[in-house]
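Shipment paperwork, digital attachment
Item: protein structure file
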Amino acid sequence: MNNLSDEIIASRILVVDDNLTNVVLLKKLLEGSGFTNVLGITDSREVKALYEENPFDIVLLDIRMPHMDGFDIMEQLSKIDSPLPPNIMVLTAQTDQETKLKALDFGARDFLHKPFDRLEVLTRIRNMIETHLLHKKLRFHNEELEQKVCERTREIEQTRLEVVRCLGRASEYKDNETGMHVIRMSKTSQLLARAAGMSEENCSLILHASPMHDVGKIGIPDNVLLKPGKLDDDEWEIMKRHAEMGMEILGNHPSPLMEMARQVAITHHEKWDGSGYPRGLKAKDIPLVGRITALADVFDALTSERPYKKAWLVEDAVSLIKEQSGKHFDPELVEIFINLIDDICAVRDKYRDVFDTEAAE
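Attachment content:
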């Protein structure tokens, strides 16, 4: 026992026995062998509070005690929220099988029989402490690995989301060089989704999926996409293709984010009355994320300045949206939108395009 490691020597040991002589004997024996952190008590009622304050590496616990016996203490300790179960060695003068089995059932790991044999006491305690410390190290190592995995997963997720944002900004870059439109409309979409009762998970997904609503515009020729005047019939047919192009660009990856992004891309130009494109979906046949994105997209487009148009006043944009309730837009979402208009305008003001003017107010 002279080669105890510093870690074992510093282990926290609690001796619990109503017989003060036994407590003193064990404390002297342990401290004389090099252990530096031994506490002995005779009142079993103190154990729970002491253990909760700072869990012990081993508890040497008598069975027969007044107030609370060893079984009561083990039951108490088993209910404490702790990373590792208590490491308990039972002290007993009883050798019957029933007592041993009951102690094991209550959480004991080993037994010391009274009267104590010095070498046996030290060997058993050292072995139990070594095992307990190994379990602590293993748990710490696992927690450390789990933390690293979580951190790496967050890094990958942030990288993926940044790629998504860049893709969304790329689709807007030709007619909105700041790319702030996709930020405003995505945050507005999230506000609408939450108020419409979508789960927090789906609200987060729509925040990151909606910036890709117009990614298909990447495939539209500049002479159509940037035409300052009204598109003719042929040009309009070309422009409408961006919804299907967007879905194709986003591919077939099965992640929830990409699935929602495809849904947004293909349905955000559908209209409540069925007059939209590309599939002419009507009412609630249009996915909720498509209906939400449509409303957020139109409002922001109307109230944003572009090199080829002036921004609408918020009041005028809201009037148009009310007018289009039940036609272009889901009537229930329009009501939600109107109730949220202050929050939506706060988003608009916070993420303003650099070329917006005060007249846009």
